[in-house]
């Protein structure tokens, strides 16, 4: 597991070894269907979450920041503005170096009602309000926040092309809806 320190003076990668990975139990049936090449008629993003236990404690003096988790009531409503962070691809970046990912980026998005069948009731977002920016390949696992300071309300899972919107919707697993699983395993 690698963390990138957020120090403005010295950005560096800090590596940790995982000792245990706990996947949300509701995610397994969907994974089994995929392994059996059976058709899945709903998006599986609502349960796309895991708890990773590290072999050593994280030293917060290295520049790694801690952001609080959502509470059970922290579920955004459609048209609310949220913030996303990730290292993924950004084909609209004017700097060619940023198009392939690997550069930490943050942006805002607008919550929308999911207009497709889903498992686990994920948080769906679309670009906006003042940009065409959206999470992309490589952003999976990145946080969705109520404000730039937190709390974390979602974890990036997948993108879905919606023909009715002629655009992409990104699904985030809801921390509030998965809070019992999270708290039981940390």
Layout of secondary structure:
Elements: E1 2-4, E2 13-15, E3 18-23, H1 28-35, E4 50-54, E5 81-86, H2 96-99, E6 105-112, E7 123-127, E8 143-145, E9 152-162, E10 167-174, H3 179-185
Antiparallel strand pairs: 1-2, 3-4, 5-6, 5-8, 6-7, 7-10, 8-9, 9-10
Explain what the structure shows.
This protein has helices at residues 28-35, 96-99, 179-185; strands at 2-4, 13-15, 18-23, 50-54, 81-86, 105-112, 123-127, 143-145, 152-162, 167-174. The model has no long low-confidence stretch (mean pLDDT 76). It is mainly β and 186 residues long. It comes from Schistosoma bovis. This is Peptidase S1 domain-containing protein. GO terms for molecular function: serine-type endopeptidase activity.
Helix and strand run: EEEHEEHEEEEEH
Rg is 17 Å
Largest sheet: 6 strands, antiparallel, barrel
Report the principal-axis shape. Answer: globular
Distance between the termini: 17 Å
Number of strands: 10
Helix content: 10-25%
Low-pLDDT sequence parts? none
Briefly, what CATH class of the largest domain?
Mainly Beta
Structural class given helices, strands, pairing? mainly beta
Quickly give the CATH architecture of the largest domain: Beta Barrel
Number of helical elements:
3
Q: Which range does the strand content fall in?
A: 25-35%
Task: Write a brief caption for the model.
The chain is 10% helix and 31% strand. It contains three helices and ten strands. A hairpin with an 8-residue loop joins strand 1 and strand 2.
């Amino acid at each position: 597991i690698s963390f990138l320190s957020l120090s403005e003076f010295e950005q560096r990668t800090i590596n940790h070894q995982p000792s245990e990975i706990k996947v949300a139990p509701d995610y397994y049936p969907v994974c089994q269907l995929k392994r059996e090449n059976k058709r899945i008629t709903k998006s599986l993003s609502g349960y796309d979450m895991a708890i990773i236990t590290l072999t050593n404690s994280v030293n917060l003096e290295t520049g790694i920041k801690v952001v609080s988790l959502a509470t059970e009531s922290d579920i955004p409503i459609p048209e609310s503005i949220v913030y996303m962070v990730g290292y993924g691809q950004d084909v609209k970046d004017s700097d060619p170096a940023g198009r392939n990912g690997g550069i930490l980026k943050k942006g805002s998005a607008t919550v929308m009602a999911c207009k497709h069948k889903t498992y686990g009731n994920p948080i769906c977002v679309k670009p906006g309000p003042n940009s065409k920016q959206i999470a992309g390949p490589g952003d999976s696992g990145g946080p969705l926040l109520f404000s730039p300071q937190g709390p974390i309300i979602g974890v990036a899972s997948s993108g879905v092309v919606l023909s009715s919107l002629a655009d992409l919707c990104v699904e985030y697993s809801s921390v509030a809806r998965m809070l019992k699983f999270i708290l039981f395993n940390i």
